[in-house]
Amino acid sequence: MTAVPEKVGVIGGGRMGAGIAQVFATAGAEVVVVEGDAGAADAAAERVTTGLRRAAERGKLDTGPEEMRARVRVGTDPAELPAGTDLVVEAVPERADLKIQVLAAAERAVGGHTVLATNTSSLSVTELAAGLQDPGRFLGMHFFNPVPPSRLVEVVLPAESTEETRERVLGWVRGLDKTAVVVRDSPGFATSRLGVLLGLEAIRMLEEGVADAESIDNAMELGYRHPMGPLRSTDLVGLDVRLAIAEYLHGTLGERFAPPRLLRDKVARGELGRKSGRGFHDWD
Ligand SMILES: NC(=O)c1ccc[n+]([C@@H]2O[C@H](COP(=O)([O-])OP(=O)(O)OC[C@H]3O[C@@H](n4cnc5c(N)ncnc54)[C@H](O)[C@@H]3O)[C@@H](O)[C@H]2O)c1
Fold first, then answer.
1. In this predicted structure, what is the pLDDT of residue 2?
2. Which residue ranges does UniProt annotate as crossing the membrane (predicted)?
3. CATH domain 190-274 topology
4. Does ligand 1 lie within 6 Å of residue 14's CB atom?
5. What is the residue with the minimal CA distance to atom 38 of ligand 1?
6. What value does the CA radius of gyration of the chain take, rounded to a whole number of Å?
């Protein structure tokens, strides 16, 4: 089945939520973005408008950005999610308590037909179902940043998620012209578990003086055709974000995810990667 949901809700219109709203609207869905307050809603609306304008400039839209933009409404209350919403994707900050709360509020606002998804990049999807009446309609849809050009959606299945839920979501991912990988709910899923491990080993190599950052990244970019070396990629994700995920995986999967001293020191110094101008490379 390849189709795009007709009505989509997105809770949290930040970096990821605005991108998720954009790709569903571009594929033909009516989208409602729910933000925390009026100021955040204005910022989210601006992000969606900017994203669509950039897509139009790159020739990625079939019709004008204004027409696509008219498909996206931004509000501040889950009650604004329309009846018959097919899919709600939660993309609020990476805090379990907040996610559990907004998912439960979204479930109360929509009908029994709606699939609920979380865009968490590291938390246990099973635990995020804690406040839901019907966990069978819930799973992880892990989009990547930036959402529009990214080809992957990692579909994360908790034990209670039903086959019908999975099949509907896989059809929608195809409808977005993206590719799904399906993984059982487990720490770090497939992407973070492998990506973070490679990044941590690269940091340990730097600590041991095996090579400098540029050489380590070039080794993987030129030798293994990775589009981006593990240290550059850590800089883009953010060293603080990587450290938080490594700590979580260290606790759940064991010693091989122990964060290296150098990573902790850089985060303590505010060297967070591209967003702060310096991480393992300089970005000024
Ligand atoms: N940034 C990435 O590279 C990336 C990649 C994959 C997944 N993720 C995950 O996506 C989620 C969002 O990340 P982001 O980078 O977009 O964060 P962000 O901080 O840019 O966006 C979060 C948005 O949620 C809004 N929000 C906060 N509380 C809210 C509430 N109660 N109701 C509605 N909206 C609320 C904020 O105003 C903000 O606009 C996180 O779980 C993150 O782990 C991020």
1. 55
2. none
3. N-(1-d-carboxylethyl)-l-norvaline Dehydrogenase; domain 2 (1.10.1040)
4. yes
5. 14
6. 19
Task: Tell me the CA–centroid distance for residue 11 and ligand 1, in Å.
Answer: 9
Tell me how far CA of residue 27 lies from CA of 4, 22, 148, 199, 244, in angstroms: 7, 9, 11, 34, 34
245 within ligand 1 shell (Cβ under 6 A): no
pTM for the whole structure: 0.93
Helix (H) / strand (E) containing 7: strand 7-11
**How remote is the CA of residue 17 from the centroid of ligand 1, in Å?**
7
CB 202 within 8 Å of CB 231? yes
The fold adopted by the segment(s) 7-184 is Rossmann fold (3.40.50)
pLDDT tens profile 190-224: 999 999 999 999 999 999 999 999 999 999 999 99
The structural domains of the chain, with segments of one domain joined by +, span 7-184, 190-274
State in Å: Cα 276 to ligand 1 middle. Answer: 19
Under DSSP, is residue 210 helix (H, G, I), strand (E, B) or coil?
Answer: coil
For residue 21, name the pLDDT band (cuts at 50, 70, 90): very high
